[in-house]
Amino acid sequence: MPATPPPDNPRWQLAERVTDAVRRRFSDQVLAIGAHGSLAHGDDAEDSAVDLVVVTYEPGTGPRPATRRIDGVIVDLGVIGAEEYLGHARTLSTGWPLAADQYLTTAATFDPDGWHELLRDTHLARLAEAGTGEFTALAREAWYVASSAAARARRLAVWHDTDTALVALSDARVAAAVVDGLLTRTYFRDGPDAVRRTGLAGVPMGELTDRLTGQAAELARRGRPVDGEVADLFS
Hints:
Layout: H1 10-25, E1 30-36, H2 37-41, E2 50-56, E3 66-70, E4 73-81, H3 82-89, H4 96-104, E5 107-110, H5 115-129, H6 132-158, H7 162-184, H8 191-197, H9 205-221
Parallel strand pairs: 2-4
Antiparallel strand pairs: 1-2, 1-5, 3-4
Helix pairs in contact: 6-7, 6-9, 7-8, 7-9
């Protein structure tokens, strides 16, 4: 559930200022406006960004998406049509562990009709429909991405491209955390939160490889082995 930022929070005050400006200019086009990320969770800091999403009645209306630094704070203004947003909330993909938080945790700055509750309930209903098999299938697809990312990090390390290898290893950790999230139906706030909560933050390549091996074994146990034959590509 979203937190309620204190009224004297300068980032919340800035979010309200932006909301007021949007409503003045696009009053007949805007259905709801809400904050995501740290502001919605109530643990924002002085250097936190303000992430706002404007939900419009019709696609292509309202303000243009934009990002600016205002009073020393990065403000990211996203814009999306209501039906498109609900469509995203009804869709499960390999990126679900890093996407779900935006559907489930929103601090509304403008929402006279309770639209954000509809967004949350729509996503929760989709999760209730999804069986273990659906999440396992997604986890296998995500595992291939994680395995490829880890292989790239290993190659770069062998080539002594240390800086690039470290970046690739970081990407591989996040990818492996996403697999864990799908296997356990766990969502995260972002990539850093994912690797922290799955115990993958800072792990060396050997431990990451062991995690991927364990994930492959679990996928096989669930009837979704990562290895197959040519014919399996068409089944």
